[in-house]
Amino acid sequence: MNDRPTGRPDRRTFAIISHPDAGKTTLTEKLLIAGGAIHLAGEVKARGQTRRARSDWMKIEQQRGISVTSSVMTFEYDGLTFNLLDTPGHEDFSEDTYRTLTAVDSAVMVIDAARGIEAQTRKLFEVCRLRSVPIITFVNKVDREGRSPFDLMDQIADQLALDVAPMMWPAGLGGEFEGLYDVAGQRMLLPEGRVEPVDGLDDPKLDTMLSERAAARLREEVELGVGGYAAFDRAKYLSGDMTPVYFGSALRDFGVPELIHALRDLAPSPRPQPADPAPISPDQDGVTGFVFKVQANMNPQHRDRVAFMRLCSGKFRRGMKLNQSGTGKAIAVHSPILFFAQSREVADEAWPGDIIGIPNHGTLRVGDSLAEGTPVVFTGLPNFAPEILRRVQLVDPTKTKQLRKALDDLSEEGVVQVFHPAIGSQMIVGVVGQLQLEVLISRLEHEYKVDARLEPSPWDTARWIATDAAPDMAAFQSQHRSAMATDRDGQPVFLAKDLWDLNFVSGRSPTVRFSATKERV
Ligand code: GDP
């Protein structure tokens, strides 16, 4: 299905996007079981449970530790390697979640059949859309009462502005669920695990497999559905304009193999990655990759970090020297980590689409690229405007230096963003999720021995600003001095009291561009 020159093994590098409770953990577990990593199943479950206990630091720490090993899960199915990148759920929602989606080639969107599209699904979907990430939809929990397939598909089409192509059709839902009809494959999947070929909907065999009522309803619905929705078009799927819709139950392991087959047969091989001046093709010689996530290691006593690099081209071999963008420094990667679901293994080689963990002491930052030759600049690795801004107040004012160092480190890790206001010396931290603030305070206290409080700030949101002409920038900055700040790279940022303030100011400043995302260069 995918055209690759010989020699380079294929990959499916994907993420699951969903709202909490839609069944992501359960589905992940079933995918890993299908991929033979059975003994991890319990671990995934355990993670699901600990994740729910939020504010207790030990638990956050525990979860962070575990998520180092489970942020990437590699499994094999049918001779093909799948890299599943975890996007942390609701409570631990942070920029990490967004950025992980820059490292995948496709996504599976899991929707609860009763709840349909929820807030978090939509947020994550928008990030996928920024990069035209192709999405396969899996409507989960068909074993429970849910909305009608029409309702669900119309909702996806309307709310996400995507064409939908039904690939499976449930014969009833909840108590009336009797199986799944494979629209293109002309097969009936029955709950006891049987798969029966049928010769279209008129095949009388359907009447022997289903109750009279279910058969009649299925015939009517599929006819309407197939007529009413578009047929699957792979080009449209690959461009992010169409989503094929599958149904199933992760809990009952029903419809899961079909989902894996869809990933195998429809989802893209490692795609060229956006870069300046030209995209980097996976077939290009020479190793290139970018860091999309940095995570402190499990032991908080050691300042070790693991940088997660997505390999974009070339064949990576252990011990290779790679040049870091920005600094131009060569880094020898002696003990890269691969993430086979059973264990963290030291990688000897890796290919485009693979994720390797690079232990380091803080030299690698999110957005950095690494290359065998001349460093490349990957584009589209944005920072996102924070939705919560707080002032940092030191309890012991002699610890200013330690605080600066700590905030520098933590902003490199992507735990928070730090802004330096033009007026005053108090730093502002910005996050997209509340849990990031809790993590910040705990880590300041435990790792950096800095006792700090977070206080309300007069600002609600931030925008990176840019102009075409330097005088315009200078004029804007002097006019709005009390709302100006710089981010950690020295880029100018406008702090707005609220959206009204933002709209008002931006409306009056036509030569200034306000951006809710910032690309690292
Ligand atoms: P996550 O928050 O998205 O990771 O969701 P989980 O996988 O933890 O699932 C949330 C709840 O839904 C758990 O109680 C699961 O047992 C349940 N669940 C998951 N999949 C299914 C399914 O297919 N059918 C039913 N009935 N329950 C499910």
Give a brief rundown of this model:
The protein has 521 residues and is of the alpha+beta class.
Can you describe this structure?
29% of the residues lie in helices and 29% in strands. With 521 residues, the protein is an alpha+beta fold. It has 3 domains: 11-69 and 94-265, Rossmann fold (3-Layer(aba) Sandwich); 275-378, 3-Layer(aba) Sandwich (Rossmann fold); 382-519, Peptide chain release factor 3, domain III (Alpha-Beta Plaits, 2-Layer Sandwich). The strands form 8 sheets. It has an 8-stranded antiparallel sheet. The protein has a 7-stranded mixed sheet with strand order 2-3-1-4-5-11-6, with helices on both faces. Helix 1 runs antiparallel to helix 2. The protein is globular. Mean pLDDT is 85; it is low at 38-69. Guanosine-5'-diphosphate binds at residues 18, 20-26, 48, 89, 140-141, 143-144, 249-252. The site of guanosine-5'-diphosphate has 18 residues, from helix 1.
Number of helices: 14
Radius of gyration: 25 Å
Q: Domains counted in the coordinates: how many?
A: 3
Largest sheet: 8 strands, antiparallel
- CATH level-3 fold name of the largest domain: Rossmann fold
**Small-molecule binders:** guanosine-5'-diphosphate
Q: How many runs of DSSP E, i.e. beta strands?
A: 33
CATH class of the largest domain: Alpha Beta
Secondary structure class reads: alpha+beta
Strand content: 25-35%
Instruction: Return the CATH architecture of the largest domain.
Output: 3-Layer(aba) Sandwich
Low-confidence stretches: 38-69
CA-based shape: globular
In the sheet with the most strands, the strands line up as 28-25-27-26-30-31-29-32
